[in-house]
Amino acid sequence: MKKVKRDIVLFFLPCLAYHLYFLLLVEAVSIWDLMYLNVLLLVCFGIYLGIRIYRLSKRERKKNDYMESEGTIAEELRDYENVEIALHDQQILNRQLEEQRECMCGLQDYITKWCHEVKIPLSAALLVNERMEDEKERQQMKEPLEKIRRLLNDALSGCKIQSQMFDLQIRPVHLKECVRESIRNQQFFLIQKHFTLDIRVEDVMVYSDSEWLIYVMDQLIGNAVKYAKEEPKLIIWAEEKPEKIQFMRRIYDKGFTGSNHRDGQYKSTGMGLYMVSQILHKLEHQIEAESEYGVYTRFTITFTDHRKFFHL
């Protein structure tokens, strides 16, 4: 009704102005003429006001009907200037967002539970595989089992990263131990692809989360395995610079092109390096990639020296 009040004020102000004009400045003006003019104006304004109130009431009823709906209404009421509409849509969108979040959390919980359930028969299958007497058959069976194990670990890690329960434990970590653990995790595929290893990592301490750092190394070494061709070589070394430590991993393949997937030999989702970048961002580490086509690919992870911060 604010608009109706505004219209009434805008009507009476000009009326007052012309009354004062005629009464004070115009001589021999007839009071009856003014009365007749006032009645005529009031009738016209009354008709206008009635139509105005009817339209506003109709709009208000339409808005109230939409306000009871479960969907957003801003598109249908784009001509309305009302904070209630914006608040209504905000509440609807917040509720939809919360429902989607709960759905995603439920899906993550289901995937996590499913992965843990699958790990039990997978471990049993790996144990049975180790007891097979035929070496050739044992190796043939172990490869898909190891791939399943790696994919399960990737799925679990992906759920943890996206979860609100993602937890980091930053503490001094022996970089050499993390490298060894990652090599052990990938040893089957490294041996299968006949990798030559050159590890030059001293007993360097960095501030990181050992679990996630090992996962990052697993992904990078796994990439080397996926794209390996003839005489692959994996070089890992670390060098300390002022206030930072650089850990480098280099893949050297004879005739390496890094495009196996385009030849149909390997299908990649591209999620591995994405997960690596997400984890390192959360760990506040930096990663850089350098590649020479057909020669090598090198990833450099930079750890900032936080010893001064911890007064060590």
Please tag this protein with its features.
single chain, 312 residues, alpha+beta, Helix Hairpins, Heat Shock Protein 90, 3 domains, five-stranded mixed beta sheet, two-stranded antiparallel sheet, 8 helices, 59% helix, 17% strand, elongated, HATPase_C_sf, transmembrane helix
Task: Write a brief caption for the model.
By secondary structure, the protein is of the alpha+beta class. The chain contains eight helices and seven strands. The protein has helices at 2-25, 31-67, 83-130, 135-162, 175-185, 187-192, 210-226, 271-283, and strands spanning 171-174, 196-200, 205-208, 230-241, 244-254, 286-292, 296-304.
Please give a structural write-up.
The chain is an alpha+beta fold and about 300 residues long. A hairpin with a 3-residue loop joins strand 6 (about 285-290) and strand 7. The protein folds into three domains: about 1-70; about 90-160, Helix Hairpins; about 170-305, Histidine kinase-like ATPase, C-terminal domain (Heat Shock Protein 90). It is elongated. The model is unreliable at about 250-260 (pLDDT under 50). The longest helix is centred in the middle third of the chain and has 48 residues, at about 85-130. It has a five-stranded mixed sheet with strand order 2-4-5-7-6, with helices on one face. The chain has a two-stranded antiparallel ribbon with strand order 1-3. The protein has helices at about 1-25, 30-65, 85-130, 135-160, 175-185, 185-190, 210-225, 270-285, and strands at about 170-175, 195-200, 205-210, 230-240, 245-255, 285-290, 295-305.
